[in-house]
Amino acid sequence: MTSPYGLRGRAAIVTGGTRGIGHTVARQLADAGALVCVTARDTEEVRHTAAELGGIGLAGSVADPGHLEEVVDLVLREFGRIDIVVNNAATNQPYGPLMDVDPDAWRTAFTVNVEAPLRLVRGAWQSWMRDHGGTVVNVCTEGAGHVGPHVGAYGTTKAALLHLTQQLAGELAPKVRVNSVSPGLVRTEMARFVWEPGEEQIAAGLPLGRIGEPEDVARAVVWLASDAAEWVTGADLLVDGGTRVRAAGTATGYAVHERLRADYHLPGA
Prior knowledge:
7 strands; globular; 14% strand; 7-stranded parallel β-sheet; 3-ketoacyl-ACP reductase; 9 helices; alpha/beta; Rossmann fold; 44% helix
């Protein structure tokens, strides 16, 4: 299916672009005509996804500033421009009460979820967008707006990313639009431990009656990246199936929080 948002000839970078939301965003951008560069840690997945999309890719960690510099250089060398940046790569670790969080793990979470998006936007700005304009979309989370059990580190970093989005929107206007998308619970591998054991219960508690799919989020990202949203900047678009308004229609508890409490002692968490 062809996207209604014409992005032909524009160049996009998608971090965490080989799985879940990032992969679907990359595919929908390519379907809209964009030239896409994906980055993720697994070399084979990056190679496969780049070939699938007819684009390019570079394996590495967004926590490595050198990797982000290489991504910017690669895109400019191969595509000659950088029009769209989608900061999707993230970590949901460390998991557990903040009083138990290892300081090194806390710093890593901020490096991946907050510092890396800033570094990539800065690279794109200095090398192309300052003179030619562009759009940035950061993938945050519905949970950035409230607290939850055992996800304090993740929520805090995403709240910081939400503020960073708004700060950059003000600083980089009018050349660059900067927005965010905040998904609710989406069917991804990173969130599998939450949705898989009790999907029916969680879906029943949402006004729209189902958990999200990567396509739901990707459509919002592509819209914000396109000219259809040309007068939108500094916005956070909730794509959460009604999670924030569920209390108006049900008296039951929030099943997602029940799952998070139940899975506190996750293997490897």
